[in-house]
Design goal:
Length: 245
């Protein structure tokens, strides 16, 4: 397998060439290419082991990241000047290789990024719910993993990876892998996860959920009990697990 790197802000990871999006990869994500076919590459993502297909031309040589984007999103500018043309937008969690830095900008091979929007590799956040709150209002996107659109499991994964915690990409795998199951009726607390069949939500406080959901088509807070009743009423069943990290 050949190690490569994503060179565009975000790309769909497809189930098959021309098939549906399963997840997404971000700028700087490293991957292992398994095979190439008619301009498409089948790969495995280093961050979570997820596999799928992307256009071969979004892959480039690996430049080891020195920093990561810790703001919800940022711009890459042509010059170290916020009034200069912006060349691309990068989502939270994107990995970059800094060549030099000043008091206000870091320089990368793609351009200049505000220094306040990045953190050095190895610096992690400590509260995944606070990370998830950065995505408030982000539009819901099935299989999405970026500030430009994400789904329930994408929100959970982004928050946990930013805190240095390994996390699968899909809610079913997250339910199996994350945390400790609590008995039914346990009092929820901030940082817990509630799972349904095909859905997951953060507990923001004992009365409130934070989740990317198709009802609001966005990342939103929702009263916990009301959400449980709504999800059951719409035919998606009861809570299947209450997990504590």
């Amino acid at each position: 397998m050949t190690r490569r790197q994503i060179t565009v802000p975000v790309v769909d990871l497809l189930r098959a060439p021309g098939g549906p999006r399963d997840r997404q990869l971000l700028f700087g994500d490293t991957v292992r290419v398994i095979e190439e076919r008619e301009g498409m590459s089948r790969l495995v993502a280093d961050k979570d082991g997820y596999s799928g297909w992307v256009p071969a031309d979004v892959l480039g040589p690996v430049t080891e990241a020195t920093h990561w984007v810790s703001a919800a999103a940022t711009h890459v500018y042509a010059r170290p000047d916020m009034k200069s043309p912006d060349r691309m937008s990068l989502s939270f969690g994107s990995r970059i290789a800094v060549q030099s830095e000043s008091d206000t900008f870091v320089e990368t091979g793609q351009g200049f990024i505000p220094k306040v929007h990045v953190q050095p590799e190895g610096i992690v956040m400590t509260d995944p719910v606070s990370v998830a709150e950065l995505f408030l209002g982000t539009p819901y996107l099935w299989g999405g993993n970026s500030r430009f659109g994400l789904d329930c499991s994408g929100l959970v994964q982004a928050a946990l990876l930013a805190c240095g915690c390994p996390c699968p990409g899909d809610s079913g795998d997250q339910e199996a892998a994350l945390g400790t199951a609590l008995p039914p009726g346990s009092a929820p607390r901030r940082g817990d996860l509630l799972f349904w069949k095909g859905h997951v939500a953060w507990v923001a406080d004992p009365q409130t959920l934070l989740h990317a959901n198709a009802w609001h088509m966005a990342v939103q807070f929702e009263p916990l009990e009301a959400a449980i009743e709504r999800i059951a009423a719409q035919g998606d069943g009861p809570v299947t697990a209450h997990k504590r990290l």
